[in-house]
Amino acid sequence: MSPSSTAILSPPLPTPWPRFASPLKLGVMASGKGSNLEAIATAIQQGHLQAQIQVVIYNNPGAGVRTRAAQLGFPTVLLNHRHYPSREALDRAIVDTLQAHRVDWVIMAGWMRRVTPVLIDAFPRQVLNIHPSLLPSFPGVRAVEQALAAGVKVSGCTVHQVELVVDSGPVVMQAAVPVWPDDTPEILQARIQVQEHRIYPAAIALAAEAASQPSTRPSNGGQLTVDG
Ligand code: GRF
């Protein structure tokens, strides 16, 4: 396998995609470029993910996600953490915004702030996050750099339910990518993001399907298959 190979271990996407009584109402929280927001929007437009994006909350005035969300026609709300006296006060404003937009599922897509029980308790088991490592390895910031520094040969991304401990919580879906000797953080991040965009929409659908069947835990989408 050559170093340029994009060979991966990635779960199959749902076939067919789950259907719900009504579209899932998503609230997206993001601080970055918004590429995951766009991937979720694309999956919705394609008729795969039965959902609608009610609002996009961002916390950095210059975040690229704001432009992307506006281009896609989604309402955007800036909640700048610098203007709140505590994490709880910020989360109260987030919850108020999500509820005002009638959100059911909270989708953290590059939200780089720790959250509190104020948010988690308002949406029990319905807050999801995506993280650029195979959790429980490399939680926290600079996960891609952490993976490279550790010298791992495989990394990837994880969609999980959000709990109080950062980057913990039940795993919904993971995908793995190779780490090659000459990878830079940017190259590995880009390889991981291809998988993020593939699995996040599917993970939302699978988490919602699992939630509608209370006795089951979120599935990882099935057995890993070699692709690529
Ligand atoms: C993703 O890599 C995600 O794993 C991390 O933040 C990044 C957000 O990227 N939590 P984007 O803004 O969706 O492009």
SSE layout:
Blueprint: E1 8-10, E2 24-30, H1 35-45, E3 51-58, H2 64-72, E4 76-78, H3 87-100, E5 105-108, H4 117-120, E6 127-131, H5 143-150, E7 154-161, E8 171-178, H6 185-211, E9 225-227
Parallel strand pairs: 2-3, 2-5, 3-4, 5-6
Antiparallel strand pairs: 1-9, 6-7, 7-8
Helix pairs in contact: 1-2, 1-6
Keywords:
alpha/beta; 6 helices; binds 5-O-phosphono-beta-D-ribofuranosylamine; Rossmann fold; disordered C terminus; two-stranded antiparallel sheet
Would you identify the regions where 5 or more consecutive residues have pLDDT less than 50? 222-228
What is the annotated CATH architecture?
A: 3-Layer(aba) Sandwich
User: What structural class do helix, strand and pairing data support?
Assistant: alpha/beta
Give the SSE string: EEHEHEHEHEHEEHE
Strand content: 15-25%
Give the biggest beta sheet: 7 strands, mixed
Strand order of the largest sheet: 4-3-2-5-6-7-8
Ligands (ions, cofactors included) = 5-O-phosphono-beta-D-ribofuranosylamine
Q: How many helices?
A: 6
Helical percent range?
A: 25-40%
CATH topology: Rossmann fold
Number of strands: 9
Shape: globular
CATH homologous superfamily identity? Formyl transferase, N-terminal domain
Return the average pLDDT rounded to an integer. 92
User: How many domain regions?
Assistant: 1
What is the first-to-last residue Cα distance?
Answer: 11 Å
CATH class placement? Alpha Beta
